[in-house]
Amino acid sequence: MASSSVDLEDVPSESLMSELLRRMKCATKPEKRLIFIGPPGSGKGTQSPIIKDEYCLCHLATGDMLRAAVAAKTPLGIKAKGAMDKGELVSDDLVVGIIDEAIKKPSCQKGFILDGFPRTVAQAQKLDEMLDKQGVKIDKVLDFEIDDVILEERITARWIHPGSGRTYHTKFAPPKVPGVDDVTGEPLIQRKDDTAAVLKSRLQAFHKQTEPVIDYYSKKGILAKLHAEKSPKEVTDEVKKVLS
Asked: Is 202 a catalytic residue?
């Protein structure tokens, strides 16, 4: 492994200590390779960091990984940039290649949470082939099941303070003054894709694309359906139960 430019002598001892403790705690954890599937707003983003820390996994969000590979100008990143510049979709092989590279990192030693991939059965098969070559497989696929109506209420009521990224929800976490950030008093905005019309088309695409994927993993006997409409704490408990 190429040594990075960071000299261990320059790393503050509390950082080293906490990393050492984390590794000791992680040493006894069983390996887990997970896929999170769910529509926008189903809570995958809330659960990923919690489950990642609990089980010492790495979180692989394919969109972020593609952007990182492009920025780092890795051979795969350069190929991906070529496709994106032409306005084409990045090929399944390329995305699987980028995942393949990522899961060899030390942080992924105990396994990973794959988020946003696979979106099609063809991608799921390619992913299986790649993992098979490494002698591992997906352990569990968590399906964040939630009614479209509940999602609409969740998402269209989201308001954001653009300066800080603070998020509010008109029903569950309203600002003290409607439409205004608690801290700065500046106006809140809605994301362009948080409107009912955009959500509807995203959900239609999600159901059409993803139903077959859910079916694919269900047939393999590794699918677990979660009640994603519950509170985040309850969903976390459900995930832990499924993984125990």
From this structure: yes
What global pTM score does this model have? 0.79
**Burial class of 50 by CB neighbour count within 10 A (0 to 12, 13 to 18, 19+):** middle
Q: Is residue 230 in a domain?
A: yes
Total number of domains in the chain = 1
Is 33 tagged catalytic?
no
Looking at residue 98, which CATH number applies to its domain? Answer: 3.40.50.300
User: Tens of pLDDT along 38-91?
Assistant: 988 899 988 999 999 999 999 998 888 888 888 989 898 899 888 888 888 889
Nearest to 38 by CA among 239, 203, 232, 231: 203
* Active-site annotation holder among 191, 200, 220, 241: 191
52 is catalytic: no
Reported as type and span, the H/E element at residue 79 is helix 75-85
> 52, 79, 110, 119: which is the annotated catalytic residue?
119
CA distances for 90 relative to 79, 80, 115, angstroms? 9, 6, 17
84, 90 Cβ separation under 8 angstroms? yes
Task: Name the nearest CA neighbour of 211 among 139, 133, 143.
Answer: 143
| 68 in any annotated domain | yes
Pairing of strands 158-160, 167-169: antiparallel
